[in-house]
Specification:
The strands form two sheets. Strands 1-2-3-5-7-10 form a six-stranded mixed sheet, sandwiched between helices. The protein has a four-stranded mixed sheet with strand order 4-6-8-9. The chain has helices at 29-44, 66-71, 79-103, 119-126, 154-162, 164-173, 179-184, 197-209, 213-227, 232-248; strands at residues 4-8, 13-18, 50-55, 59-61, 108-112, 115-117, 129-133, 137-139, 176-178, 190-192. The chain has two domains: 4-209, 2-enoyl-CoA Hydratase, Chain A, domain 1 (Alpha-Beta Complex); 213-257. Strand 1 and strand 2 form a beta hairpin. The chain is α/β, with parallel strands linked by helices. The protein is 48% helix and 16% strand. The protein starts with a strand and ends in a 13-residue tail after the last helix. It is globular, with a radius of gyration of 19 Å. Helix 3 (79-103) packs parallel to helix 4 (119-126).
Length: 261
């Protein structure tokens, strides 16, 4: 059974399921490579109009599988070698992996069914919309392991979603945030009964899939770009660019510019 399951519906909604339930879907390097391959293929498939990302079993993703990482690196490098290789691998693999979701053509909905921790939290924050099961639990956790306080863009993403004070509270205490608090502070759009989570995710994804793909892509990219700009004028210019491209960019009949009937 593959570590990542892929399915696509006729509506244009696709779903990727992290499939290592015995480890709460902890990420291995081969699993990350598999996810990246799926992301790239989905981006190239114009019939996909929305993507759901979820986990099998009791968890969404519990972060990096540290045991597997140690077993795959039996050598004992010097501290300086560890620093150099660690910085390099994180930049090439994890940081690129995290930002890949924000740059995808299709909107991404994270259906968070259980444990959301470490790099799993980064995956959730990099998704465009987050829906949580009432059983979901969010945990940054790095400080409790004696590690740097965040990775995978969490220090940039979390304050923008919940505000600086709440983000620092979560990051510095290493405490767990339950589903109810996550909805209250805006970390997720909604909290649902566990049995209703995937149904709600597909319902929202199918609402998105009925819209014109070009409009969805431009809307997503404009919002993500404007999160980082410093002034209203730049934001207005980016919005104007999107309007011009969506209205005047088509040539003849192009399904990427049309809503589904």
């Amino acid at each position: 059974m593959p570590d990542v399951l892929y399915e696509k519906r006729e509506s244009g909604v696709a779903m990727l399921t992290l499939n290592r339930p015995d480890s709460l879907n902890a990420l291995t390097h081969p699993m990350v490579a598999e996810l990246r391959r799926h992301f790239e293929e989905i981006d190239e498939d114009s019939s996909v109009r929305a993507l759901i990302l979820t986990g099998a079993g009791r968890g969404f993703c519990s972060g990096l599988d540290l045991k597997a990482a140690r077993e795959n690196n039996p050598a004992k490098p010097t501290p300086s070698q560890t620093v150099r290789s660690g910085l390099g691998s994180h930049h090439r693999v994890w940081n690129h992996f995290a930002t890949r979701l924000t740059r995808m053509r299709v909107p991404v909905i994270a259906a968070l069914n259980g444990a959301v921790a470490g790099m799993g939290l980064s995956l959730a924050l990099c998704s465009d919309i987050r829906l949580a099961s009432e059983k979901a639990r969010f945990h940054n956790g790095f400080v409790g392991l004696g590690m740097g306080p965040t990775e995978g863009g969490i220090s940039w993403l979390l304050p923008r979603l919940v505000g600086m004070s709440r983000a620092l509270d979560i990051i510095l205490t290493g405490r767990t945030v339950d589903a109810a608090e996550a909805a209250e502070i805006g970390l997720v759009s909604a909290t649902l009964p566990a049995e209703a989570l995937l149904g709600a995710a597909f319902e929202k994804a199918e609402m998105i899939a009925r819209n014109a793909p070009t409009g969805m892509w431009l809307g997503k990219q404009t919002v993500w770009a404007n999160v980082g700009v410093a002034d209203l004028q730049t934001a207005l210019q980016l919005e104007a660019r999107g309007q011009v491209l969506s209205v005047f960019g088509r040539e003849g009949e192009d399904p990427l510019y049309e809503r589904k009937r």
